[in-house]
Design a protein that fits this description.
The complex is a heterodimer of chains A (about 110) and B (about 110).
Chain A (H helix, E strand, L loop, with lengths): L8 E5 L4 E6 L8 E7 L6 E6 L4 E2 L4 E4 L5 E6 L8 E8 L14 E6 L1
Parallel strand pairs in A: 1-9
Antiparallel strand pairs in A: 2-7, 3-4, 3-8, 5-6, 6-7, 8-9
Chain B lengths: L3 E4 L2 E4 L5 E7 L5 E7 L5 E9 L2 E4 L6 E3 L9 E3 L8 E8 L9 E2 L3 E5 L1
Parallel strand pairs in B: 2-11
Antiparallel strand pairs in B: 1-3, 3-8, 4-5, 4-9, 5-6, 7-8, 9-10, 9-11
């Protein structure tokens, strides 16, 4: 399975934008890039996903490099509730049967 | 629509005891998964199922068993609990295996083996 690399931790101030990077240099052409986050003492929750084009939803934006070897999750205005572990995961679908491989993720701390 | 539910929320087991972690989803999803998460680590896949009656091993299956007799339920069985199985267990489901599909996770079961 293609792997991802993320910084161990990042910090932000409340109401400022946050850019969370992810490297996936061995990504294959059909892998989708997914982001999940895990709030303290909860199960992971879906944030956003994309294939080639940048994506926006109500939670965040996803910027994907042209060569698809890296991506960035953008939280436009961080709130205290956004403090969580963020996971960047590649989903190959097909014969991987939807299995997800989690790395250690990025711990995001948001300061008031 | 409750999504993915897990019981119990927390359990303490003695070494050698057995227990079943329950997982139910009400979204009619074909694919279900069991993950474990050790402190400070990401989730690791234990077992998964692609439909009723079909299960397969994930990355860390030793010490666990699963069954899938219905679409809704995917219980995880620990036969002889060991301290190494102290962890938080998450169940998840997804409707199809397409790479754009998202997984829905339950709230987790915290297990302590002493």
């Amino acid at each position: 399975d293609a792997k991802t690399t993320q910084p161990n931790s990042m910090e932000s101030n409340e109401e400022e934008p946050v850019h969370l990077p992810c490297n996936h240099s061995t990504i294959s052409g059909t892998d989708y890039i997914h982001w999940y986050r895990q709030l303290p003492s909860q199960g992971p929750e879906y944030v956003i996903h994309g294939l080639t084009s940048n994506v926006n939803n109500r939670m965040a934006s996803l910027a994907i490099a042209e060569d698809r070897k890296s991506s960035t999750l953008i939280l436009h205005r961080a709130t205290l509730r956004d403090a969580a572990v963020y996971y960047c995961i590649l989903n190959a679908g097909g014969t991987s049967y939807g299995k997800l491989t989690f790395g250690q993720g990025t711990i995001l701390t948001v300061h008031p | 629509n409750a999504g993915v539910t897990q019981t119990p929320k927390f359990r303490i087991l003695k070494i050698g005891q057995s227990m079943t972690l329950q997982c139910t989803q009400d979204m009619n999803h074909n694919y279900m998964y069991w993950y474990r998460q050790d402190p400070g680590m990401g989730l690791k896949l234990i077992y998964y199922s692609v439909g009723a009656g079909i299960t397969d091993k994930g990355e860390v299956p030793n010490g666990y068993n699963v069954s899938r007799s219905t679409t809704e339920d995917f219980p995880l069985r620990l036969e002889l609990a060991a301290p190494s199985q102290t962890s938080v267990y998450f169940c998840a489901s997804t409707p199809r295996r397409d790479p754009w599909e998202t997984q829905y996770f339950g709230p987790g079961t915290r297990l302590l083996v002493l």
